[in-house]
Write a structure and sequence with these properties.
Length: about 800
């Protein structure tokens, strides 16, 4: 999930409560949260608590009568320095500080202090009259500091700017994980750093090359220099592993590169120079890709995360003492921290061997359900195991809260099992009465709706429930809304295209009576070619919109025609529609890659595959139709940063790592040990409040941590199993009871640790990510209440 940073009113009020102590609770309860950005004072008396010309009230108190404006009075509560303070943190240098002093009517006062971004800096000692602000040195940005005394509150601001340079790896723990230990580690698990490639380059030792990188003179455009990955205008979540930069140019091989990252506000600036990765001496490969250092990526995204700053990346390459470039991209970083688990289907996994006949390695491969916990560089086995095909577990669906999944048995598709999931294990429970294919699992994991229009209690199904009110009894890939009140499906008549409906239906669902009602047609393709089918639908977190797989070419495997499939020549895009305005059925062009997907890199090996995925020749692969190679969307059930996060299967090329033909993904037809299939999982941000009929999406990014040497599909991004009261947390949607609150203790004057709680917050309002009934429950008045949690809105589109 995306774990948002604390909003106005949570970390601030928590810090103020703890600093005041119990005796000050009466004053604290007078404070009312207001958004930052009002009009500053003009020197006269005012009831605004954030005056002195600092840009308006953060908190306002009906008890406050302090005055202020451009000039600072000596009466009432006065905090100096008044102007915006700017400090620059330079790597390797002592941390700069800002000392504050609080007086009341000219006398020192032991004020209560708080700040809104504890990851940017700290105040100590507090409470007291003279605390010092010290940057953490890990995150930059604008910090608002509050001081309160005698019923009055004023605010001050500090801009923290981070600046650093490096030449080669810096030895940090994060960067050590981006340096391969041998050739085998290049493709083990998710690859180096969870994203593939050859890892970080070494230091640049040639003075002339360093000088050239700082002053590029080569005509990069004439040399065809271009970035293959990531994509310009990508929206990134915080917390995800650093991406692999991949470039292509006619010169082919680089001696060294320079990467620059900076934010548009100047809060972060970094320049790194790197020579060829050492592993290339063993592989004989070219220097055509390198990841952003992990620790740099974390600092950059933590600093830029929000709705008012953007991250600029520039790449310059050097060859023969001449530097070319730079090529530049602009990215948005969502105001939230990624968390949760992605469960996905893998054919060709190296974690479970249950089939013979593979063309690569020892001839064994497996079919299984794997999981990636966000931040891991490789997946774990969840369902399936070693042995014969009786150990294969595929075709899965997962509950939104991450408590259970349902799979089919690979040796017998009439047999299925449910798995009870915990953070560290999974337990199989065979289903006795039904064999659902891709059922819709209820958000809490206690039941599933299968294609036979039956409701199955989970994890076991001793008594199948026959619902009432359904408009069809052969349901294609049904799915429940995150709030459990709706279901969506494609009514399928048989396995032939002529009998598959070209329509999606949304119906209301009453769990207590197992009743469906109020059918709504959300997509109709009547009159379109028979191949045009909607399928694999999924709801947005607010349950108001549906995203789906819009098939335009069906798969054909001999005499077998598959509907809404992902193999054997099937073509599809990801589209969306609003349930209440179903006439607007719209492609998500930016997600699909329309107009910007790169062409094949010059290093692409020659290979061709037939419709069944078997290698049949050695011609140049064709990725010219990658925009129609997107399938099987699902959606993270929690909105954050103003976005819904769509996970989908794609056969597009992944830079220069996975470039073989799109349908080369069957390990029995292609050597997928020496060749990396492009059948992988991708993620894209979609604006949560976009108007129907618009393209609400943004360019996608490759999901880090998925197994590199496998074909991966059908990803479900779900919550971690909820945490009990008293467990550590960063946001309320991690907690079983919905609140993540300070534990009421202090450590040297710092705010107490955050733990899960079953009681409403002391501030009487909910932080981003905490439980809400309506938007009025949220501390930030601009928040939405989405699927029971406070969520931010995006302003950068």
């Amino acid at each position: 999930m995306l774990r948002p940073s604390w909003p106005w009113g949570k970390s601030l009020t928590a810090a103020l409560v703890l600093a005041f102590g119990a005796a000050a609770c009466e004053n604290y309860l007078d404070l009312v949260v207001h958004p930052l950005g009002g009009t500053g004072g003009n020197g006269g008396a005012t009831t605004s608590s954030g005056t002195d010309g600092t840009g308006g009230a953060l908190f306002m108190s009906t008890a406050s009568t302090s005055s202020g404006a451009g000039g600072v009075n000596t009466t009432g509560l006065v905090v100096v320095p008044v102007p915006l303070q700017t400090v620059t943190v330079t790597a390797g240098q002592p941390l700069p500080t800002v000392a504050y002093t609080a007086t009341f009517d000219g006398q020192p006062v032991g004020a209560a202090w708080g700040l809104d971004k504890g990851n940017v800096g700290t105040l100590a000692p507090i409470p007291g009259p003279m605390p010092t602000f010290t940057p953490t040195g890990t995150t930059g940005g604008l910090v608002t500091i509050l001081a309160s005394a005698n019923g009055k509150t004023v605010s001050r601001q500090v801009m923290v700017k981070l600046s650093s340079t490096q030449n080669g790896p810096n030895g940090s723990t994060g960067e050590q994980g981006q340096i391969p230990t041998g050739v085998g580690s290049l493709t083990n698990g998710g690859g180096v750093g969870g994203v593939g490639g050859e890892g970080l380059g070494g230091p640049v030792t040639t003075p002339g090359t360093l000088t050239a990188l700082g002053n590029p003179t080569g005509n990069g455009q004439a040399q065809g220099l271009k970035l293959l990955y990531p994509y310009d205008k990508t929206v990134w979540p915080r917390g995800i592993l650093a991406p692999l930069l991949m470039w292509d140019w006619s010169t082919g091989d680089a001696d060294a590169i320079e990467i620059q990252l900076h934010t548009t506000t100047g809060s972060f600036s970094w320049t790194g120079t790197f020579g060829r990765p050492a592993i290339l001496a063993q592989t004989g490969g070219k220097f055509i890709r390198m990841p952003i250092p992990q620790d740099v990526w974390q600092m950059a995204t933590d600093t830029a995360g929000g709705t008012s700053d953007q991250l600029i990346m520039s790449l310059t390459v050097a060859k023969g003492g001449v530097a070319y470039g730079p090529v530049t991209q602009t990215w948005t970083v969502a105001a939230g921290l990624l968390d949760g688990i992605i469960y996905y289907n893998s054919y060709g996994t190296q974690l479970a061997y249950n089939y013979m006949g593979g063309l690569g390695g020892n001839g064994q491969y497996g079919g299984a359900v794997l999981s990636i916990h966000v931040g891991d560089t490789g997946p774990k086995l969840v369902a399936g195991g070693n042995g014969d095909d009786t150990k294969c577990r595929v075709c899965h669906s997962v509950a939104a809260n991450g408590s259970s999944l349902v799979v089919q048995h690979g040796d017998d598709y009439s047999a299925s099992s449910a798995y009870v999931l915990t953070p560290t294990s999974s337990t199989e429970h065979p289903l006795a009465n039904s064999s659902p294919r891709f059922p819709g699992v209820y958000p809490d994991g206690t039941l599933a709706l299968d294609e036979n229009a039956e409701i199955l209690p989970l994890p076991a199904d001793p008594s199948v429930i026959a619902p009432t009110g359904l408009v069809a009894f052969d349901l294609g890939t049904p799915a429940f809304s995150p709030d459990g009140t709706l279901a969506v499906f494609n009514p399928q008549g048989s396995d032939t295209i002529a009998n598959i409906a070209q329509t999606l239906y949304v119906m209301s669902f009453a769990r207590g009576t197992s009743t469906f009602s109020n059918p709504v047609v959300v997509d109709s393709e009547n009159g379109a070619p028979a191949d045009t089918q909607p399928g694999w639908p999924a709801f947005f977190p607010d349950s108001k919109s549906v995203v789906f797989h819009h098939q335009t070419v069906a798969s054909v495997d001999g005499a077998d025609v598959d509907t809404v499939a992902t193999r054997a020549g099937a073509r599809a895009q990801i589209w969306w529609t609003n349930v209440k305005d179903a006439q607007h059925v719209t492609p998500l062009d930016q997600l699909n890659g329309k107009g910007y997907l790169p062409s094949l890199p010059a290093t692409t090996p020659a290979m061709d595959c037939d419709a069944d995925g078997n290698q049949v020749g050695t011609i140049t692969p064709d990725h010219s139709d990658d925009v129609n190679m997107n399938y099987e969307p699902t959606v993270n059930p929690v909105a954050s940063g103003g976005y819904a996060w769509v996970v989908f299967t794609s056969r597009r090329m992944y830079g220069s790592v996975a470039t073989i033909p799109p349908f080369c993904s069957d390990p029995s037809g292609v050597d997928l040990i020496d060749n990396i299939t492009p059948k992988k999982l991708w993620v894209a941000a979609v604006d949560l409040t976009a108007a129907p009929g618009t393209d609400a999406s943004h360019p996608a990014f490759y999901l880090p941590g998925q197994e590199l040497l496998a074909g991966n599909s059908r990803g479900f991004w779900v919550l971690d199993p909820c945490r009990a009261d008293g467990s550590s947390c960063t946001a309320g949607d991690q907690c079983c009871d919905g609140y993540c609150e300070p534990n009421g203790t202090t450590d040297g004057g710092a705010t107490g640790a955050l733990v899960c709680s079953n009681t409403p917050p002391t501030s009487m309002c909910s932080a981003v990510g905490e439980k809400c009934g309506t938007a009025a429950s949220c501390c930030d008045m601009t928040n939405l209440c989405v699927n029971g949690f406070c969520a931010q809105m995006s302003t950068i589109n």
